[in-house]
Amino acid sequence: MKKNLIIVLAFSFFFVALALLFYKPLTSKNMSYYKIIDGKKYDAQLIELADKAVAGAGDGRISLADAKTLLEAVKDGNEYTDIEKDTMKYIRDHYKWTPEADEWFRSQIAKWAATK
Question: What is the extent of the structural domain holding 59?
Answer without folding.
Answer: 32-114
